[in-house]
Amino acid sequence: MVFMKLFWFGLFNTSKKFKKGKLLEGYGLSETSPVVAVNRPHLQKPGSVGPAIPGVEVKIVNDELLEVPLGEAGEIIVKGDIVMKGYYKDKEATEKSMKGGWFHSGDLAVTYPNGYIKIQDRSKDIIISGGENISSIEIENTIAKHPAVSLAAVVAKPDEKWGETPCAFVELIEGKNSTEEEIIKFCKETLAGFKLPKNVVFSSLPKTSTGKIQKFELRKKAKELNWI
To answer: Fewer CB within 10 Å: C terminus or N terminus of the chain?
Structure first.
């Protein structure tokens, strides 16, 4: 459903190839035609997707649809002329996503005092380990900064003790090498212990025709690791 979402790890790797270009992180979905927010050329906040564009209202809400305080994570909901009327011949999906006249994105984010938005994760991609909520994007961002890494995707792996643990799938830059131990050690430099990936798998990442990583395929692979 997400049409355009450039996270920091994406910019980090893209900037390696286009050092002279000016990249602006933004956020949007097919359902929002597609841009909701974008950084301004004269005022960028690395790691954020910028403020909402003119004419678009954005709120960060909790499960009761109440706005959360600044810096607290909640779901992004959007209102404006850019928002779709509904899904074609799918009344149930339309009613679910358009509750209260707002489009419910399913994406989790926090806001800064200046209105800039920072994406935390997709709600379905949050990893719950030992009662702690872990953002898969935070781990992906960290791994992507490793000099041998081209792409990284992190999903939940079922675990008998913790419920779920982070499992990282890593695509290396051609000609570069790394190990599971090296990647985990690299993550230890900036991540809390409970956020560290417990497994690191090196492989090409499954993608759609538009380049979006297919995490549902990686979740299947992560479950299969329990049987190896």
So the answer is: C
User: What pTM, to 2 d.p., does this model score?
Assistant: 0.70
Domain boundary (123, 143, 173) is at 123
Q: Which residue range(s) make up the domain with 63?
A: 2-123
CA angle 136, 195, 176 (to 5 degrees): 70
Contact of 83 with 100, CB cutoff 8 Å: no
Looking at the structure, tell me whether residues 80 and 183 fall in a common domain: no
The one-letter amino acid at 22: K
**Are 49 and 27 a contacting pair, CB within 8 Å?**
yes
Per-residue pLDDT for the chain (228 aa), expressed as one digit of tens each? 333 333 444 555 555 555 666 788 899 999 999 899 999 988 888 889 999 999 999 999 998 999 999 999 999 999 999 999 999 999 999 999 999 999 999 999 999 989 999 999 888 899 999 999 999 999 999 999 999 999 999 999 999 999 999 999 999 999 999 999 999 999 999 999 999 999 999 999 999 888 889 999 999 999 998 754
List, in order, residues 6 or more apart from 204 with CB less than 8 Å away.
171
Residues 142 and 118 in one domain: no
